[in-house]
Amino acid sequence: MLSERRLQVLRAIVQDYVGTEEPVGSKALTERHNLGVSPATVRNDMAALEDEGFIAQPHTSAGRIPTDKGYRLFVDKLAGVKPMTAPERRAIQNFLDGAVDLDDVVARTVRLLAQLTRQVAVVQYPSLTRSTVRHVELLSLAPARLMLVLITDTGRVEQRLVDCPAPFGEASLADLRARLNSRVAGRRFTDVPRLVEDLPEGFDVEDRGTVATVLSTLLETLVEENEERLMIGGTANLTRFGHDFPLTIRPVLEALEEQVVLLKLLGEAGDSGMTVRIGHENAYEGLNSTSVVSVGYGSGGEAVAKLGVVGPTRMDYPGTMGAVRAVARYVGQILAES
Q1: What angle do CA 213, 217, 218 make, to 5 degrees?
Q2: In 3-state terms, what secondary structure has residue 35?
Q3: Nearest Cα residue to 298 out of 274, 269, 324, 275
Q4: Residue 227 C-beta-side C-alpha neighbours within 13 Å
Q5: Residue 138 pLDDT more than 80?
Q6: Segment holding 76, helix H or strand E
Q7: pLDDT level of residue 224 (50, 70, 90 thresholds)
């Protein structure tokens, strides 16, 4: 275990390196921070931190920089989440309150996160499998053609065309719409199949084929495999950090193009807690020079998706964590009220 003083020295090194982009020396530390000890003692503490792998010396400098291990200890033990100021909170709320639908909410969230953190922002669309049904609408397009519209509690809208095996009248359509919503509205998607399995039996024989077709389309919509969608923004922010990437920024950009990689980085949507993955903790090799800060968002107490940012390991962790958490909270409120 590191002593409290050496933890303070590590915190000071991280803060100075993030702020100045320059390796940090013992003289600068004692001048900038009230550590209460001599430069010689600070040098000894830095030597101990280097021996244990928390800081390292770049070849071209006498100063030290944090390693992935050092950043990890900083985040776990030393970094409080920086709260947003009242004007910042108002700005977030006003910007997101103007959204007109779910796509707009996600697009605004990406732009906002990228602007607040000056990193790459990633927002996952709410997952269908963690949603509840708000309403199912059925519209007649032709005597034997319907449109099914599924509206979720997160504001997501899915539309499907249904070709019926026989003409389906308006009275039957209204009856099916009412019975269907009485069973599934407000219920979890995972519950819907058992709630509707006997529904066709309540209709006339000539209508049962169409009812079964509508239900089949509904169930296919609920379990779609391609539901996981992402929106990404602020990629240009990476160009400000060219010197933070050892060789080239290209592997990072290539990784950001892979949706599967980004979904794995964000983690399981059901986990609403804050996650910080630093450097080599990211399994994808192209992102070994980056850190990912993510958190779940959703209406009610359960996360329905994740949002977060990707940036160099030399990032303002307290500020980034505070911004990500604040934005997630506001997005959750919007979904709950939508």
Answers
A1: 115
A2: coil
A3: 269
A4: 18
A5: yes
A6: none
A7: low
Report the C-alpha gap between 7 and 13 in whole angstroms. 10
Rounded (to 5) percent helix, strand, coil in the chain: 55, 20, 30
Cβ atoms of 9 and 37 within 8 Å: the answer is: no
SS3 292: strand
What distance in Å separates the CA atoms of residue 94 and residue 127, rounded to the nearest whole number? 25
Q: Long-range contacts of range 162-170, CB-CB < 8 Å, 24 or more positions apart?
A: 162/213, 162/214, 162/217, 163/213, 164/209, 164/210, 164/213, 164/214, 165/209, 165/210, 165/213, 166/206, 166/207, 166/209, 166/210, 167/143, 168/140, 168/143, 168/144, 168/207, 168/210, 170/140
Per-residue confidence (pLDDT) for residue 139, from 0 to 100:
93
- Alpha-carbon span 11 to 33, nearest angstrom: 10
The one-letter amino acid at 2? L
- What predicted TM-score, i.e. pTM, was given to this entire model? 0.77
Return the DSSP state at 200.
G
CA–CA dist 84, 80 (Å, integer): 12
What do you get for the CA distance between the two ends of the chain, in Å? 49
- What is the enclosing helix (H) or strand (E) of 281? none
Torsion of CA 222, 185, 107, 232, to 10 degrees: -30
